[in-house]
Design a protein that fits this description.
Elements lengths: L13 E5 L10 E5 L8 H5 L2 H6 L8 E6 L14 E3 L18 H14 L16 E6 L12 E2 L5 E2 L1 H11 L4 E4 L8 H12 L3 E5 L19 E6 L7 E2 L2 E2 L7 E4 L3 E2 L2 E3 L2 E2 L5 E2 L2 H18 L5 H10 L22 H6 L23 H7 L27 H30 L30
């Protein structure tokens, strides 16, 4: 847990997760909102974003895809941003840009994108975490009414929803990170192929988990293998809650800030500022994508798999043993400062999330193999003290790899020497049966257990 604080109820404002019902039925959104306390950009101080950007880490040159409802790219917060809008939505060919009516889809898409590349002006004065990153926005739909005709079957026989097609387009456009603040109760074989394509090609997919127990069934794509699933916490380090009930999932990968942020809408269908605030994993997701973008800018040779390795090994601001909290914090609170000070290229180029406990179990190994053109992608279990370097090594350090190599060579030499002795004795004592001794490790290594404790990410 963050700061050893117990989760408690906190006031929430917006749950902005779209829902897709069973294949062949209408696509209907799940979205609720209420305005309570005024929003603030407290997350910038929590993560010391100003310090990171002053050091030059702004996401420059890193391509991030945002898949969401619609967006109002004419808002003051986006002026001067390196923001590209895919020219049509992936459902019903509606315009991806909504500059007039502030419908729920366009407000949601604008809010999450502003957290990445907002310029600090306009409603809420939102200054993005990855202010100079190259962000491409892919509109899913306007999230209003029945969405007919949005399922497509391609020549390979796979059926895709708008989400799956948007993921494939984001991959094809060269994005290194995909931020998805949407959650769905089901998936198609095409959507699973799209996720498998992203993971197999080293594209990091970050996705929001549901905000309430009523939405708990909306688990795709956050709970799929290979994907970073995100939940939100408040400015006291407590998991988000609603109606006195904490929102927690055993499948969470990491948690990030996402409570009482400013919104670009002053009321339903009205752009502007009247102090409304929004809360939810939808907001934590782009912040997580932005943290990874800054890390990739600093360590440009890191692969997507190595970024995920570093993310789960280096949660919270201080070094600690790897630990997983199935009660809701996952591997712990994401820390921008920790990610920036540790070189991810020291970690294995393997995705540690391909076999999520309690996850959806998809994409399967076969689906990953197909996506990788017949060969399985590199995979591993979540890194442990025995399988991956300890977190917090100095940037650029090669000592963990060298030390491991020396140990392996020494052990192999000892084994070979032992076999040689046994062989010589067997030659001299042909009639004597012997039982070879087994080689055991010098000490025991066990994983840390219990929730991660930490402090603010700066």
């Amino acid at each position: 847990m963050i700061g050893n604080r117990n989760p408690h109820a906190c006031r929430t404002a917006v749950s902005a997760l779209a829902a897709v019902v069973a294949l062949g039925l209408a696509l209907m959104p799940s979205l609720s909102a209420s305005a309570e306390t005024a929003g603030s950009n407290w997350w910038r101080g929590w993560y010391d974003v100003a310090g990171a950007q002053a050091a030059g880490w702004t996401g420059a040159g890193i391509k991030i895809a945002v898949i969401d409802g619609q967006i109002n790219s004419s808002l003051p917060v986006f002026q001067g941003a390196n923001l590209k809008i895919y020219p049509t939505s992936f459902c019903n060919n509606i315009s991806p840009a909504d500059t007039t009516t502030a419908n729920r889809g366009s407000v949601h898409g604008s809010d999450v994108t502003a957290l990445l590349v907002g310029n600090g002006t306009g409603t809420g004065s939102v200054a993005g975490i990855a202010s100079t990153a190259i962000v491409s926005f892919y509109a899913w739909s306007n999230s209003v009414g029945t969405q007919d005709g949005c399922l497509t079957t391609q020549s390979d026989g796979l059926t895709f929803t708008p989400l799956g097609r948007a993921i494939l387009k984001a991959i094809g456009d060269g994005n290194r990170i995909i931020s998805i603040s949407l959650a769905f109760p089901s998936s198609t074989d095409g959507d699973r192929r799209a996720v498998a394509e992203a993971v197999s090609k080293g594209v990091v997919v970050v996705a929001a988990q549901p905000n309430t127990a009523d939405e708990a069934a909306q688990r795709f794509p956050a709970d799929t293998n290979g994907v970073v699933g995100i939940n939100a916490f408040d400015d006291q380090g407590n998991l988000q809650a609603r109606d006195g009930k904490t929102t927690a999932y055993s499948t969470t990968t990491v948690v990030a800030a996402g409570d009482r942020f400013p919104t670009q809408a002053s009321a339903d269908n009205v752009w502007g500022d009247n102090g409304n605030s929004v809360t939810g994993s939808s907001l934590a997701t782009p912040l997580m994508a932005g943290m990874l973008a800054l890390t990739l800018q600093k360590y440009p040779t890191a692969t997507g798999n190595q970024l995920i390795q570093s993310l789960i090994l280096n949660t919270s601001a201080k070094d600690h043993p790897l630990s997983f909290d199935s009660a809701g914090y996952g591997y712990g609170p994401a820390s921008l400062s920790h990610l920036l000070r540790v070189d991810p290229t020291q970690y294995p180029d393997t995705n540690p999330l391909l076999n999520k406990p309690n996850g959806l179990g998809v994409p399967t190994a076969a689906e990953f193999a197909t996506a990788a053109n017949g060969s399985s992608p590199k995979a591993s279990a979540p890194p442990s003290a025995a399988a991956a370097p300890s977190p917090g090594k100095a940037s650029g350090s090669i000592m963990p790899g060298l030390l491991t190599g020396v140990i392996v060579v020494v052990v192999l030499l000892l084994v070979l020497a032992g076999l040689a002795v046994v062989l010589m004795r067997s030659l001299r004592r042909k009639a004597v049966a012997s039982t070879p001794a087994s080689v055991r490790p010098d000490g025991t290594i066990s994983d840390a257990t219990g929730p991660v404790t930490g402090d603010r990410g700066h």
